[in-house]
Amino acid sequence: MSHSTAFVSIEGLRKGRQAVSDMREAPGSSGCGSTGGSGKPGCGSSAGPDDMPPEIWDKIKNHPCYSEEAHHHYARMHVAVAPACNIQCNYCNRKYDCSNESRPGVVSQKLTPEQAVRKVLAVASEIPQMTVLGIAGPGDALANPRKTFDTFRMLAGQAPDIKLCLSTNGLALPEMVDEICKYNIDHVTITINMVDPRVGEKIYPWIFWDHRRITGYEAARILHEQQMKGLEMLTARGVLTKINSVLIPGINDSHLLEVNREVKKRGAFLHNIMPLISEAEHGTYFGLNGQRGPTAQELKAVQDACMGGANLMRHCRQCRADAVGLLGEDRSDEFTLDKIEQMEIVYDLDKRRAYQRQVETERQAQHAAKEAALAQAAADDGVDADMAVLVAVATEGHGKVNQHFGHATEFQIYELSKAQITFVGHRRVDLYCQGGFGEEEQLPSIVNAINDCHAVLVAKIGACPRDELKAAGIEPVDRYAHEFIEKAALDWFADYRARIGRGELTHQPRGDARIRQGAYTGGVEAAA
Ligand code: CLF
Ligand code: SF4
């Protein structure tokens, strides 16, 4: 394969975005997934109870992937019971976890269904906000049906309050829909990177189908037909579906608008567009042949272009197949097989419910603080009303600015304007603080990762990173420590605008940022 130098054309995407919005107005198009809601444009991962029917809200309100707000408070876990796969993707090296739902280059500890159920109960007794069990590899959940469904069946009997979720490439999906419904699996992710086999043959070298290996266009055609059929069948049965798409510059970047349109037509609830990660060290076909991933602004441009079509998820962390914890944190090391052998497991449903009620109270306070800050922001301040900026936030959960700059392994990115605050994604970074001292060499890479932001909100920051950020034109802000994120960001934005109004500074546009590729360095995520 030739080295891809094609960049996503942002202008082309804007035109495509118009086409998607026009289509949205066309007769017969529904505003939201047909299983998914009211038809209001907001009924996606950032929506709340007013945007959708109560039965849908009930399914997503504590699912950290299906509700963006929930991801600040609720945790998920994966169990790695599904090692086999029935297709080959050019961005996957089978030595590692399935890249459709995982960060490339990661190896998970494989479990039997019995081990998996013990692990879920152990995690549920230690982490009461863990509400969802997903099976997402390390191969394909539905290429290992016995192990996948045995795990779900045993767990449903022992921990009925845990939502069940699975992820698949879709090849075996149609024949598994009855089983999925039998075990009340309410959330299914299908990775769909194309709706045109001519695009698909550049992504999938082969599939294993009907007892033989099929290659080229024919392989992509069969996969496409199975994916569309499976999605339609799940929609008809009322199962919420999320579509994952890997953005591969030069191959499917502008094509993802059409994917978005087609999956919306078939009732998908959410569309999650993820960046290709293709480090050569991961040994994938793309990685070894120079196919690059998108920059942060290219990813945002494709996501923005799809707005108005199927609802977007922007808070995906490309988890590992044995991930445990809030999205963005990884506690899998605390629950290895030898450790759970030693644990006393008490699955206390009442305790879990009490904890989750507490979380709901906190979540409502966060929501109220955001609404109040937005109402205040609406007042005319004489500064350009269309100005929009990005800010980075260091958080370790609960929806608050509550992390030290040096402890962050990712920053959450919000877009601020006078009228709204929108979560636009996260940026992974290497840990700056290395057990008591700052690692100066990490600073340029951290600055690169948030280089399109005007400010970074943190609980605390040392003098050295403070100076480096300032020199790069990013304002370090620690005066909102432990406040709710949206309120803090909007208050900072009001102050920023006020300083412009007083002539103390001039607003300057920022540049692009780099999406973290290879493995991490530093304590917390070193194992991931
Ligand atoms: Fe897991 Fe996926 Fe279910 Fe979530 S993850 S199977 S829907 S419980 Fe979530 Fe992780 Fe992104 Fe997946 S952040 S990789 S979207
Ligand atoms: Fe790898 Fe997942 Fe693709 Fe299978 S479906 S080849 S495990 S990325």
TrEMBL record:
- Cross-referenced InterPro entries: Aldolase_TIM, Di-Nase_FeMo-co_biosynth, DiNase_FeMo-co_biosyn_sf, MoaA_NifB_PqqE_Fe-S-bd_CS, Nase_CF_NifB, NifB_C, rSAM, rSAM_sf
Region Disordered, residue ranges: 16-55
Q: Which GO terms describe its molecular function?
A: 4 iron, 4 sulfur cluster binding; lyase activity; metal ion binding
Per its UniProt record, the required cofactor names are: [4Fe-4S] cluster
The answer to whether UniProt assigns keyword Cell membrane to this entry is no
Domain named Radical SAM core is located at 71-322
Pathway of this protein? Cofactor biosynthesis; Fe-Mo cofactor biosynthesis
Keyword 4Fe-4S among record annotations:
yes
Q: What Gene3D superfamilies does the annotation carry? A: Aldolase class I, Dinitrogenase iron-molybdenum cofactor biosynthesis domain
Q: Which CDD domains match?
A: NifB (cd00852), Radical_SAM (cd01335)
Composition-biased stretches (Gly residues)? 30-42
Q: Which UniProt keywords apply?
A: 4Fe-4S, Iron, Iron-sulfur, Lyase, Metal-binding, Nitrogen fixation, S-adenosyl-L-methionine
**Family annotation (Pfam families):** Nitro_FeMo-Co, Radical_SAM
The similarity comment for this entry is: Belongs to the radical SAM superfamily. NifB family.
Briefly state the protein's biological role.
Involved in the biosynthesis of the iron-molybdenum cofactor (FeMo-co or M-cluster) found in the dinitrogenase enzyme of the nitrogenase complex in nitrogen-fixing microorganisms. NifB catalyzes the crucial step of radical SAM-dependent carbide insertion that occurs concomitant with the insertion of a 9th sulfur and the rearrangement/coupling of two [4Fe-4S] clusters into a [8Fe-9S-C] cluster, the precursor to the M-cluster.
Spell out the PANTHER family in the cross-references: FEMO COFACTOR BIOSYNTHESIS PROTEIN NIFB, FEMO COFACTOR BIOSYNTHESIS PROTEIN NIFB-RELATED
Q: What's the protein called, per UniProt?
A: FeMo cofactor biosynthesis protein NifB
The record's gene field reads nifB
